Amino acid sequence: MKNKKALGQHWLKNRAILDEIADLAVVPGIQICLEIGPGLGTLTSSLLGRFKKVIAVEYDAELARKLPGQFPGKDLEIVNADILDYEIGLSNYVVAGNIPYYITSPIVKKTLELEHKPARIVLLMQKEVAERIAAAEGKYSLLGLYAENLAEVNLGPVVLAQEFTPPPKVHSQVLILDPRKEPIINPRDLKLAKIGFSAPRKKLIANLVAGTGQNRDFWKQQLVKNGINPDARAEDLGLLDWENLAKIWYN
After folding, report:
1. Residue 219: CB partners within 8 Å, gap ≥ 6?
2. What is the set of domains in the chain, with CATH numbers?
3. Residue 9 pLDDT exceeds 70
């Protein structure tokens, strides 16, 4: 079936890789998997071998119509909807999917913000984005801090572009998120981080001055007080650094 470029469709058909992704989604005692973007059903097949029920949310109406006939006798529920609009009212479930690159951030945020959080989230995405989300000190990103605050973040296997039909222009990688019961810091503290990342190539202090209304001397003093180099960039600060600076800003 011809892919639709506008929907970011790239079909992964390597069964060993599909099985590995499905294995990573398994959490003992969890029998339901919500799949994002099943496409041709290649990952769906592996998930149905590991979960009692799979609920697959597919935006493409034609694909959604054809999927049920491929898995007779299996407990597969197909939902023809945009995952960003779909109301997920599940409990005791995991999320898995080969997701379109262009909506990676909204999908990550949505799945981590759910009231009834999944036990695990396993997503195949652009390798560069997965690495950015899982990056450590000196390479932090706003999305990475957001994810780390709400989940334990780990990288899974890299999937080369040639494993897809048609091959994308970049390689992919699996990202594994295990949602935390409680965030590490108050999520509101990341509002300051958003200001800090407003112009990532600029020094942090310049962004803080521009975005908070406080002058340069104030922020230089606060950075030094908290053991942060005044010449640092936003990517150098971890969650606890932002928590400390946010307390000053709010007060």
Report:
1. 205, 208, 209, 212
2. 5-179 (3.40.50.150), 187-250 (1.10.8.100)
3. no
